[in-house]
Amino acid sequence: MATQETLPAPTSTRTGAPRPRSTTATRAPYAFIAPFYVLFVLFMLVPIVASLYLSLTSWAGLGAPEWIGLRNYANLFTDSSFHKALVNTLLYVAVAVVVIVPVSLLLATALNARGLRARDAFRVTYFVPMVVSPIIVALIFSLVFDQNYGLANSLLHALFGLGGVDWLGDPTIAKVAISLVMLWRWAGYLTIFFLAGLQNVPKDLYEAAALDGAGWWRSFTSVTLPALKPVTAFVAVTSFISAAQIFDEPFLLTQGGPSDQTLSVAMFIYRAAFQRQQFGYAAAGGVVLFVVVFLVSQGFNRLLGIGRSS
Amino acid sequence: MSPTGISRRQALKLTGSAVGGAALLAGCGSGLAAPVTSGDVTLDFWTHDEGYETFFRDGIPDADAATDFRYTLDATRAGAQDLVTKLLAQAVAGRGKPDVIGIEIGQFARLQRGDLAERLLYDWTDRVAGLGDDLIAARRAPYTKDGKLYALDSDTPMVVYYQREDLFSQYRLPTDVGSWEELAQVGAQAAQQHGVALGVLAAGSDLGQIVQGFQMLLLQRGGAFFDADENLVLDSPEAVETLQFVVDGLKDGWITTVNDFYGASVQAGLKSGKIAGMWMASWYSAFGLKPNVPEQAGAWRLRALPAWSAGGFATAAAGGTGFAATVDQSGTEAAAEFIASTWITPEGQVRRFQELTYLPTLRSVFDSPELEVADDYFGGQQVIDVYRSIVDDVPDYYQSPDSSILNDVLSGHLVSAYRGDESPAQAIRGAAEDFANQAGR
Amino acid sequence: MTTSTLTRPAPPSTGTRRSRPSGGRVLLYVTLTVLALAFLAPLLWAVSGSFKPRGDIFSVPVQVLPSHPTLENYRNLLTTQPFWAWFGVSTLVAVVATVVSVFVCAMAGFGFAKYTFRGKRLLFSVMFSSLSVPFAVILVPLFVLLVKTGLGSPWFALIVPWVAPAFGIFMMQQYIVQSVPDDVLEAARIDGCGELRTFLTIVLPLLRPSLGALAVWTFLQSYNSFLWPLVIVSDTDRATIPLGLQTLFLSENRSYDLVLAGAVLATVPTILVFLLLRKQLLEGLAAGAVKG
């Protein structure tokens, strides 16, 4: 099967694990991984198959779903709000991968500076937003971004004399606001991965680069970046998957508005199912999201070799 | 599972489970328990608001006296939207449905899709037939599907004009202008001279509120979102005209916008005296004014809305929560009796006004002397007088299963019209087009 | 001159920085501190708000510290809402889910890391790919499935489907490959140790740091989850904290005051768990990615 080659391989195949001989030992690995697959089949595979079926029906939530073939998919392609959801989700993904990941890398580099005091305190501080429940994050930020009385505008006013930014009401700025919340929540978390990666870069590589007369930038590009490739790959893919499924921020902060300008695909699915009673249509949106996320992340994996030891 | 490499055997399995899944989803095992016809009964009672729970608990003695049942309530509280989601989910599961559920009016629209309402909710049509026209028609329309009535509203939430009597007299503004056009003139001057607003619209992230602020005026003007057959009728001269009116008002500064009718921004506007008047539904005094600015007690007054010189109604209805009983439950009959004996009796409606400040849905109860109470928040005014004067001219309000789609699209276009990014005509047209693009999936 | 004398005391690139705080260093500290403030400000503002009377929460200009500090919000929350019930449900669910999940993930991770077996690549791929299944896709059918089969009780539904996260298995697998030497396992086998006993007595103790990491991660996931409890829990008294707060916030009068107090109380356990186990979490999370 073609996919087998593209999917990531478990690490041990390359490192040469011991080959047990006895029969108990050949059964043992299956026993170890069995619980996962039981749960996986029951609570993920079966629902996915049901979703595939539902996506070919029209179902308001009760009674027998009515078979309508591919009509839901055809409708998705002409639905302007689905297009907006796709474009916005693409934007969230871009923000995550192109802005948040590099920012985290910079932050990690700064935290990795030699002899930095209070490194742990900084690291912990940046991570804290990640432990706060999304509903609480949304609540706090809906107050922070209040146009007239929020902290954000108060600060802008105090620092720069600016004011009256319509954070959640302006179509463009609302996207910025949501991106800022993503940055706030994720940057510290991703920094952890980079920081660990940085601490594993052999020091003598830097020393060699320094002896060659390399400045900060050159040793960053010639030593740090190549050494961080596996970490970066992992962080980029997990950020991509999370951003592609983003739900909490737009749902809780803007309800996808104004004019669907912050709507994400995950929220589109939720909205179709739980606000509009179009379960079949929602399932079709889910299948599209699944296929796209799946293919792209497989592509990423293949390109970057995640899950493979090199 | 991978979409590219499915073997034939896997594909067969997929089809097999898909059929199984279908059976799973389709089934609606009712496993009917024998209906309870008298004696002790515990009703599962779902609502999004504590006030209703208290009201119905207090009504238990009345219900016990009027029926053959002795009631106990087991209450569950959740968000208005979550309640309907859960109702449907439990119905699919075939167990765990509530006996009585308070459905917020906007959420009822979801049950208008297909035959959901018919499958889930008790049909009140025959039972209330005896009430005739006394059950206000405007409160039946939103909960009617195919001529059948599925819920009984908690309120006749008429839109009135709230005004700060002290500020009006301080700024020498007339408190009895006859038309919106006059109010706009007075307001434009007041905004210029004193920086006060005489009207408020929502333009934040709560899409329902954005629509509601506009909808109240549109309905009063004689426009509508949907007709009785669930067709969109938004794109009308009345809608463009009404939107033009509020856009002009925003430009002149006598209408202001807030992010949230209940939260920070409205509170600050009220506190600072920048908001001296607003059109809002009757429940706003209990949910908006009194909790946010208790210190302004005595300063506020209620009056009927100014009229539109081009015609329309005396008021409009906005909001509401319909109480429904669910079918196929052992307690269906008991639940219906319970609602009937607490909710739509004249005594119940008087008590509802006294405890929850909701207006009766029976026309005759408006004339009850027990409603004639002085409200200190409104300087001792008998607010029922105002409502009595307009209750016979409430426009009907219809919803559609696609109401929430309209909320999503219209809110965006309204805000862009408020901001001046679109002309009112473009905004209304655009909302209608977007709706057509998304509805009926 | 050996390299060690050169590098240790005065590496060329850092020598100048060490001698006296240079402009770059000051800039670094200033930047990091400003960022730290930016990260904390919204949270501190919420904490401060929870001690303000409702009318002061939105006063202009913003009050950094409450000018009329009060415990009224907390008192109201705790007396009018079943907050401790929510708290109990959330904590219990999270703790049970964490314990089971850590064990299941360690087992599966061990299976993948230290054995070769038929179908391993495919099984691993399936496991890894399940990371990219959007939750929204399975939400509705999963709910129907659970309730129809009589497994819809919150205790089961909030815990069981979520105890084998692919992320956790992947992380454990990575960690085990790096930190459990093959010869230790061989030695155990030669001593006649069964596979399960080898896992329990030899492997698990070696995994302590990463188990801690996974535990914190799972606890946070479970404690903070929102969408699933929203669909599955229908009883106010059995709501989880995020659900309870959401209901409170959506009630007719927008109880900002109570909700802020609740948010602060709700965040206390997560912050505590995080602070206590932060070393394991930060290092364990990183272990999965570093040698990716």
UniProtKB/TrEMBL annotation, chain A:
GO terms for biological process: transmembrane transport. The chain crosses the membrane at residues 30-54, 90-112, 124-145, 176-196, 279-300. Residues 1-23 are annotated as: Disordered. SUPFAM superfamilies: MetI-like. It is found in: Cell membrane. It holds the Pfam family BPD_transp_1. One of its GO terms (cellular component) is plasma membrane. It comes from the Bacteria. Its main location: membrane. Residues 86-300 form the ABC transmembrane type-1 domain. It is a multi-pass membrane protein. Keywords: Cell membrane, Membrane, Transmembrane, Transmembrane helix, Transport. Belongs to the binding-protein-dependent transport system permease family. This is Carbohydrate ABC transporter membrane protein 1 (CUT1 family). It comes from Kineococcus rhizosphaerae.
Automatic annotation (TrEMBL), chain C:
Keywords: Cell membrane, Membrane, Transmembrane, Transmembrane helix, Transport. One of its GO terms (biological process) is transmembrane transport. GO terms for cellular component: plasma membrane. PROSITE patterns: ABC_TM1 (PS50928). Its main location: membrane. The keyword Secreted does not apply. Residues 87-277 form the ABC transmembrane type-1 domain. It comes from Kineococcus rhizosphaerae. It is found in: Cell membrane. It is a multi-pass membrane protein. This is Carbohydrate ABC transporter membrane protein 2 (CUT1 family). PANTHER family: ABC TRANSPORTER PERMEASE PROTEIN MG189-RELATED (PTHR43744:SF12), ABC TRANSPORTER PERMEASE PROTEIN MG189-RELATED-RELATED (PTHR43744). The lineage of its organism: Bacteria, Bacillati, Actinomycetota, Actinomycetes, Kineosporiales. It comes from the Bacteria. Belongs to the binding-protein-dependent transport system permease family. The chain crosses the membrane at residues 26-47, 83-110, 122-143, 155-177, 198-220, 258-277.
